[in-house]
Design goal:
This protein is an alpha/beta fold. It has one domain (3-211): P-loop containing nucleotide triphosphate hydrolases (Rossmann fold, 3-Layer(aba) Sandwich). It is built from eight helices and twelve strands. It has helices at 14-28, 48-61, 78-81, 94-98, 128-133, 135-147, 163-167, 185-197, and strands spanning 3-6, 36-41, 66-70, 84-85, 109-111, 116-119, 150-154, 173-179, 202-208, 213-214, 218-221, 227-230. Helix 1 (14-28) crosses helix 2. Mean pLDDT is 84; it is low at 214-251.
Length: 251
C-alpha cells in the first residue's frame, strides 16, 4: 500500500464542521448495513467533491476507518484541489483497476490523515460507464466493505452523465448534493427519478451553499461554508452566540 500526502488540509470553520458532523451522524443512523455510499449531484460545481472529502475526513477523525473513492474518471478534481503528493511513487487509480491493469491493493492509499484512505481516479477514461458496468466494480465494493467502516464514492454529476446511476444500485445508498438557488426543481426531480428507475436507495439530499439570511442579529450560516453570529452595531453586545440550526427532513 502506497502513502500519499494531502497538502491542502484547511481547518473547517464552526458551521461547516457542525454541518458535516450532522451529515455523518445522519448516515450512521441510516443503518448498520449502510457502509458504501455514492455521492452525486445534478450539475457540476455544486460542491459535491468538497462535501465528500470533508465527510470522509470527519469519519476518520471520529476513529472510523474510511475510504474515499474518487470515481470521477471523466474530470477528477481531487489531485489538484487538495494538492496531493504521491511522493515519487507510481500510484495507480480506479481506471487502472477497472481496466484490469493492477490489483485492488495497489490503488488503495493511506494518507497523512489517520484512518483516512484514498483511491484516486487515475487517468481519464474514454469509456467510464462501461468500466462501471463490469464485474470488477462489484468485487471492489464487496472487498472494501469488509475492510473499511465507511466507503464514500464521489461520482460525476448525474445531470450530465450516467455513471452514478450505474454505480449507485450496487452500493448501500446514494446522496444527492444540490446547490441552493441554482439547481432547478425540474433537474433535481429528473435526477431523483433516474436513480429510482435504476433501483438505487436514495438516502437524502444535501442542500449546499445556502445563502446568508438576516435577523435582529446578523448571522451567516452556510452548509459546508461559513458560520458566524455577531451582534449588530446598533446596541449589540458583540459576543458570539450559538444558534439552533435544525433542518426539516424532506422525502
Amino acid at each position: 500500500m502506497n502513502k500519499i500526502i494531502i497538502n491542502d488540509l484547511e481547518e473547517l470553520r464552526y458551521g461547516r464542521r457542525e454541518a458535516i458532523n450532522s451529515l455523518k451522524t445522519n448516515l450512521k443512523f441510516a443503518g448498520a448495513d449502510v457502509k458504501v455510499v455514492v455521492f452525486t449531484s445534478c450539475n457540476p460545481n455544486e460542491g459535491k467533491s468538497t462535501t465528500c472529502f470533508d465527510l470522509a475526513r470527519a469519519f476518520a477523525d471520529a476513529g472510523s476507518k474510511c475510504l474515499l473513492i474518487d470515481a470521477d474518471m471523466r474530470k477528477t478534481v481531487m489531485l489538484q484541489r487538495y494538492n496531493i503528493d504521491n511522493q515519487g511513487q507510481k500510484v495507480g487509480g480506479l481506471t487502472h483497476y477497472l481496466s484490469g491493469q493492477v490489483a485492488l491493493e495497489n490503488i488503495i492509499n493511506s494518507t497523512n490523515v489517520p484512518n483516512l484512505y484514498m483511491m484516486l481516479a487515475g487517468p481519464l477514461s474514454p469509456n467510464p460507464a462501461e468500466l462501471m458496468s463490469g464485474h470488477l466494480i462489484d468485487d471492489l465494493i464487496s472487498r472494501c466493505r469488509k475492510v473499511f467502516d465507511m466507503v464514500i464514492i464521489d461520482t460525476p454529476p448525474l445531470g450530465a452523465v450516467i455513471d452514478a446511476a450505474i454505480l449507485a444500485p450496487k452500493c448501500d445508498g446514494v446522496v444527492i448534493v444540490t446547490e441552493a438557488n441554482t439547481t432547478s426543481a425540474r433537474v433535481a426531480i429528473g435526477v431523483k427519478k433516474q436513480l429510482e428507475m435504476a433501483g438505487s436507495k436514495i438516502l437524502g439530499c444535501v442542500l449546499n451553499k445556502v445563502p446568508s439570511t438576516g435577523t435582529s442579529y446578523r448571522y451567516r450560516y452556510r452548509y459546508y461554508g461559513e458560520y458566524e453570529y455577531k451582534a449588530d452595531s446598533e446596541g449589540g453586545d458583540g459576543k458570539r452566540k450559538r444558534v439552533r440550526t435544525d433542518r426539516k427532513k424532506e422525502d
